[in-house]
Amino acid sequence: MELPKFLLADNTDHPDAIFIVHTEYPRFIINLEDDEVEWMEEFSKEDEAELADEAEGLIEAATAFYDREVSRYDA
């Protein structure tokens, strides 16, 4: 099965949360309610420096994905 790059998720235990799951490396879940990010990978110190540069773009892409999905739902 081929997974999409981003998935939209919710959970009734967190009714105000909007979760976006990034399924490719580096995998993470962001809660758009508070911008908290949970990384699903282990990183070395060297990886962390590279990740800092990449993370901002990935989070912007996750937010753009959400905006696109919401606009399609409202249409």
- The largest sheet has its strands arranged as 1-2-3-4
From the N-terminal CA to the C-terminal CA, the straight-line distance is 29 Å
- The secondary-structure class comes to alpha+beta
Rg (CA only): 13 Å
Largest sheet: 4 strands, antiparallel
Overall outline: globular
Low-confidence stretches: none
- Note the run of SSEs as H and E: EEEEH
Number of helices: 1
Could you say how many structural domains there are in total? Answer: 1
- In total, the number of strands is 4
Q: Tell me what portion of residues adopts beta-strand conformation.
A: 15-25%
Mean pLDDT: 92
Q: Name the helicity range.
A: 40-55%
List its traits:
four-stranded antiparallel sheet, alpha+beta, 1 helix, 75 residues
In short:
The protein has 75 residues and is α+β, with helices and mostly antiparallel strands. It has one helix spanning 45-74, and strands spanning 6-9, 19-22, 28-31, 36-39. It has 1 helix and 4 strands, in the order E-E-E-E-H.
Give a structural overview.
The chain has 75 residues and is α+β, with helices and mostly antiparallel strands. It has one domain. 40% of the residues lie in helices and 21% in strands. The chain has a four-stranded antiparallel beta sheet, with helices on one face. The termini are far apart. The mean pLDDT is 92.
Sequence-ordered SSE layout with sheet pairings:
Blueprint: E1 6-9, E2 19-22, E3 28-31, E4 36-39, H1 45-74
Antiparallel strand pairs: 1-2, 2-3, 3-4
